[in-house]
Amino acid sequence: MNLEVKCRPEGFWSAVDVWIKKPHVVNKRLCGATETEYRDVSSEELELCLCSLTGVNLRELPGILPFLHAHTAATGHQTVPSWSVGGRTIIPKAVIQSNGPKLYKEIVVKDLNGETVTFLPVEENSEGHIILRETNIYQIQLQNQTDDGILSLHTLRPDQWHSDGVAYPKLTWLTSELLPKLARWATESKATEFKSTLSVIPVEKYSILYQQLKNKYKEIVKVWPEVTDPEKFVFEDVAIATYLLVLWAEERAEKGITSRQSFVDLGCGNGLLVHILNNEGHPGKGIDIRKRKIWDMYGPNTHLEEKAITPSAVFLFPETDWLIGNHSDELTPWIPVIAARSSYHCRFFVLPCCFFDFCGKYQRRQCKKSQYREYIDFINEVSTACGFQTDEDCLRIPSTKRVCLIGKSRSYEQAEEELADVKRTDYIRGRQALVPTVVNQNVHSGSHQHGDGQEMAKAACDWGKGFQPREKIETVRNCAALPRDFVDGVVLKVAKALLGLAGEKTEEEEEDKIGKERSKWNAGGSLSVRDVAELLDKSTLQTLKKECGGLQTLLKNNHQVFRVEGGQVHIRDWRTQEPQTDLKRKSQILGALKTRLCWFHTHHPDGCPLSSKDCVFAHGPDDLRPSTRPLKKHRS
Predict the structure, then answer these.
(1) pTM
(2) How far apart are CA 577 and CA 575, in angstroms?
(3) Where are the domains of the chain?
(4) Long-range contacts from 626-633, C-beta under 8 angstroms, 24+ separation
(5) Which of 15, 19, 431, 493 has a beta carbon 3.0–4.6 Å from 185's, enabling a disulfide?
(6) Euclidean distance between CA atoms 562 and 572, whole angstroms
(7) Whether pLDDT at 489 is above 50
């Protein structure tokens, strides 16, 4: 098959690398792949190199060597081919789930001048000999290397192609799924800001353990008592736990030790990561300022503490091997500092999410990078300033914030610890000086204090001037907790302003009990969010500024009345915004009740544009039915 795309050679190779390194992104039946190092060889050395890798005399298998060269010759290049030969092991999910020993290996041959890559599958037979699967040899090539390149797929034995639907896909899949994906990746040709996933640990070991832990802890999804999405949070923490367990197992093997590493998870949240790590044999605990409902479900072997954490001498962990910061918010930049000061041998793992500096929100300083890339670089800088040699990796979790930083070792000798701490202190003070107003105060209110309050306050001032831990009771700031009278007043004022504008009025014929008549309904005009803000008094705006999203959030929350698109606010016309048949379907759902009054029926000069039967909201008190659902509790 040929697929015409606009593609440059460098775009072709970046796309091919995605398929070689991360086949699971397109073939969902795979967990991933591991690679061997590539070796550059000349055309004369190619045959000998392949014979040594496959254990097969290629001259005894007619067709393979000509196949490697055939399409290269067709390009018309006169230069001597330059080859790069390596290998990859493909890891199918089915093999992982069944704990089967079979893995699929391929020799990857890149013709760098001919813009061609060939895949030679090799297998181990029942007698332990390596055999070359001729029937599944295929080649991907970029022809006509101009602005209009052509991607093509060639196979050595198309009539004998064997497919198992997993590691050996069907030829139709390769042509209909893989080639279009390669074409898209080649034309995008965007260099990612981050490393490939699981670049620090063995993919095979991770994949096997992840499937085991996923099956082991999947029942937690059914009993999840928090308001958060159970599948996302459970399987995300399973994936993070898997990563740490493999990372620590590799560390034990490297150091020749058998005892499991200890840990402390700072800002542990729901505590599931701590529960899994404890359950898998690692001694440690989690600390968070707020206890979660699910904590009581884990049992006595999961160690969780409700305590406010401040960057100070009170919160050092000299006997702990690893500190963990999993979406630890305001503690994130402090975790490398706490690890460095806990002991020379203390390491850390941090997964940054929200952007915090040592005191307050992180302020951007580089517009050429994404905000996330800039923040990751900042935490990396903190780690380096604390004396760590830092690794960066990308996790396989259902989150856009999945880049982790790992401080496994120091860049200085233990005898230099005193000088290293001076450098840390200078760095932290330099960062704090960048903040316009660093408040030198006791950051512990009465609800935050634990133990000796005076000692903690003194220690906090030594380290973290201006650091403010989150409140023990999480404040809901999405406008949902504002007084109903306040919200109703803002809605009515904005709606009247929109209705007073000379907007186009829509007309629609309606049928009533008397007969047919033409009715006009005022849909109002539109205003920008900025113009709407100018309608409100100063105290109202000050109240809204304390909420996340402010005025725009309030307007969007009241979607029954308003439609906010492209920064413009409109009155919502339910006849045109949603098909009337869908509204009827919604109102007729089994057990559905009209639990809210229709704003238009009550306040609009022309009333509601829909009949009482078609409107999903109540037209007057007689149409209102109380909700049978329990009241929703605020998050705790």
Answers:
(1) 0.66
(2) 6
(3) 2-188, 203-463, 484-623
(4) 626/593, 626/595, 627/593, 627/595, 628/593, 633/227
(5) 15
(6) 5
(7) yes
